[in-house]
Amino acid sequence: MEPTQMCPRFERAVEMLSKRWTSFIVFQLLGGPLRFVQIEQSLPNLSGKVLSERLKELEAEGIINRHVYPETPVRIEYSLTAKGLALAPILKEIGNWSSEWLPVPCTPEA
Amino acid sequence: MEPTQMCPRFERAVEMLSKRWTSFIVFQLLGGPLRFVQIEQSLPNLSGKVLSERLKELEAEGIINRHVYPETPVRIEYSLTAKGLALAPILKEIGNWSSEWLPVPCTPEA
DNA sequence: AATGATAGTTACTTAATGTAACCTAGTTTA
DNA sequence: TAAACTAGGTTACATTAAGTAACTATCATT
């Protein structure tokens, strides 16, 4: 068999989603807008430093919006754009695959 | 909005697919079995070192098979298992998303 | 003035990748 | 006989990405 030539757009999409934490951040935002600390808390091993980088990348890609509410203290919410919401079917398929093919993790003893 | 609790299996699947090169290797194998050098050549920036690591991980996960043909010189082919083939819909969705939402790259001048 | 909240950033450490040279085994070529 | 070739990797070293903990800025409350 021959290797397959890849579409540059497909390649770019895979590269984006392959960046550590990207898919998790998008998944969390599928539930609705979240603030920085909320995302941080929902992903215990994600550091604020990397979260900050990813949010900037995703905003630059047009996948998320950053909305500043000038209250005191200031509140900033991150939410998905239409382009970001459109990633949902991908995550859905990952969910389908994982529930069909990955073993149920051990449950703690009663 | 509240952060969403994640299923451990979903989490594991995302972690796997987020590892650099994993999705590309699976994509290439969707076209049929390939040898080490073929995968290496189809993914120009993937080093033999990391390819070797990823193939071992994917085999350990039950996503690919390693088949040794005792010819001379020996030929070794990597192919997807049923579990690996079942990843196709995920990559398909990534393809759909990328062709709908990512810009067509500039084409070189005529 | 000190304390607290939100939303980050910075300096430093550790882990993951990339690069290039090398290894092993069998085979053909000089 | 030995040098060279092929396939399928591995090893040592350099670079980049990610993790950790402390710190910054702004405004408000105690």
Automatic annotation (TrEMBL), chains A, B:
InterPro entries: HTH_HxlR, WH-like_DNA-bd_sf, WH_DNA-bd_sf
Top-level taxonomic group: Bacteria
Pfam families: HxlR
The entry's keywords: DNA-binding, Transcription, Transcription regulation
SUPFAM superfamilies attached to this UniProt entry: Winged helix' DNA-binding domain
GO molecular function, one term: DNA binding
Domain spans labelled HTH hxlR-type: 7-106
Protein name: DNA-binding HxlR family transcriptional regulator
